[in-house]
Amino acid sequence: MRTLLLRPGAEELNYEIRGIVKKARQVEALGQRITWENIGDPIQKNNNVPVWMKEIVAELVKQDYSYGYADSKGVLETREFLASLNNEKKGVQITASDILFFNGLGDAIAKLYQFLIPTARIIGPSPAYSTHSSAEAAHANTSPITYKLDPDNQWLPDMEDLYNKVKYNPSIVGILIINPDNPTGMVYPKEVLESFVEIAREFKLLLIADEIYQNITYNGIKAVALSEVVGDLPAISLKGISKEFPWPGSRCGWMEFYNRDASKEFGKLVQTLENAKMIEVCSTILPQLSIPKIMSHPAYKTYRLEENSKIGKRSQLLSDLLDGIPGIKFNPTQGAFYNTIVFEETYLKPDQLLPVENVSIKNLLDSWLEEQGMPLDKRFVYCLLASTGICVVPISSFCSELRGFRVTLLEDDEATFRRTFTKLAEAIKQYLGV
Predict the structure, then answer these.
(1) CA dihedral 211, 213, 216, 221 (to 10 degrees)
(2) Which of 212, 219, 396, 402 is buried most deeply by CB count within 10 Å?
(3) DSSP letters of 125-136?
(4) Could you write out the DSSP letters of every residue in 212-252?
């Protein structure tokens, strides 16, 4: 080309969660059945959408108004409904004007970083969810800045690490919290959230909370919302219906702005995000129309409690299957539907393999393993895929120095779930030689 095409930082965009699919499809084409544990799609894992929920959407489809434009910020009645849900928590009070809809949280996250100046950095957790870390890195044209989540302390954040990084890096303007967390399944206790608020208050920072899994908690745990503890600080909550209904194909997410007048700079950011949405006209209307009807339906709370209970049981079953395996760190989850398994440093070697009976798949694996500088957890993931057909994601791809992998807790058929993770447990032991 006669000139450069890519803006600086564009090559930082990376999404291994879907990238591993390319490898899995190659293996599948050679005769191996694939068990997809790489992505949090409930529909793919035999989760059934209730009939009453389908009927609500079907009725909306019959209405001509569901085919038109919405207000640029989103359907007014839906924004009023969501504002009332937030206000019931007795924390920061908002109105419909403080809510802005996007075509999924990926769209919202991209827009957020798009309008920050390149020198303004948002520090986020590590392991990091790739959509956040990649967008932040691409925006800044450098590696993401992260604070550590500690696998030896139930994946809770290392607040000293966070404090020092904020204190000694004046380019940090905000803190990202993912609660419940993806990829670890950890839920922040209230006192930890309050510590985030204290740091933000001391250094005059923006707080951003990805709370898309807010209503997916189990085994006696409830998630505290950012709005309950943030007080008068500027903050943004990111929410959506992809996982909760579940309706991942809806691509429907929104931002809730807290204390938009608390800071002149924050107010300008909010206004800019709203102006950008006006240029696009609006986000997809059908899922927005469904939100109040589904979430206020008399069956909804029971449905969500039952689904959460199922995930909690799978979390416990996974704990039972992996319990006692030398060489791994494992924490039972509290929310969302993922678990991150970490290898002890001394157990991974650069020559470890798993048996692969299919010669063509073995040759394919050998070609993958020629990659220079491959993290050792990625090597395990490739070997696991070629040997068993189980497709997981290496934790090194979640912007982490740890070595391990993420799985989902979504498979609704217990026999299939048990079979998959029994096979995984055996593969881990064989790979580590324990």
Answers:
(1) -50
(2) 212
(3) EES--HHHHHHH
(4) TTTT-B-TT--PPPGGGT-TTS-EEEEEESTTTTT-GGG--
- What is the C-alpha to C-alpha distance for residues 241 and 227, in angstroms, rounded to an integer? 19
Amino acid identity at 250:
S
3-state secondary structure (DSSP) of residue 70: coil
Query: Number of helices (H) and strands (E), helices first, in the chain?
Result: 13, 14
Q: Is residue 94 a contact partner of residue 256, using CB atoms and an 8 Å limit?
A: yes
* Amino acid in the structure at residue 84: S
Assessment of whether the complete model's pTM goes beyond 0.85: yes
Phi–psi pair at 73, nearest 5 degrees: -80, -15
Give the tokens for residue 434.
Answer: 């324990």
**CATH 3.40.50.720 describes domain 51-295:** no
Domain boundaries, the chain: 10-48+301-432, 51-295
- Picking from 288, 329, 221, 341, the residue whose alpha carbon sits closest to that of residue 69 is 288
Q: Which helix (H) or strand (E) holds 73?
A: none
19 three-state secondary structure: helix
**Roughly what angle, to the nearest 10 degrees, separates helices 414-432 and 300-322?**
30
- What distance in Å separates the CA atoms of residue 406 and residue 380, rounded to the nearest whole number? 12
Q: Name the CATH superfamily for 10-48+301-432.
A: Aspartate Aminotransferase, domain 1 (3.90.1150.10)
State the DSSP H helix or E strand holding residue 253, giving kind and residue range, or none if neither. Answer: strand 253-258
Place of tokens 């050792």: 376
Nearest by Cα to 23 from 368, 366, 357: 368
- Measure the CA–CA gap between 245 and 104, rounded to whole angstroms: 14
| Residue 176 Cα to chain centre, angstroms | 12
Structure tokens at 135: 């967008």
345-350 contact pairs (CB < 8 A, 24+): 345/403, 347/432, 347/434, 348/376, 348/377, 348/379, 348/380, 348/403, 348/432, 349/376, 350/376, 350/379
Neighbours of 244 (CB within 10 A): 20
Any idea what the Cα angle at residue 333 is, between residues 327 and 336, rounded to 5°?
130
- Residues 232-287: tens digit of each pLDDT: 999 999 999 999 999 999 999 999 999 999 999 999 999 999 999 999 999 999 99
Distance, CA of 370 to CA of 25 (rounded, Å)? 19
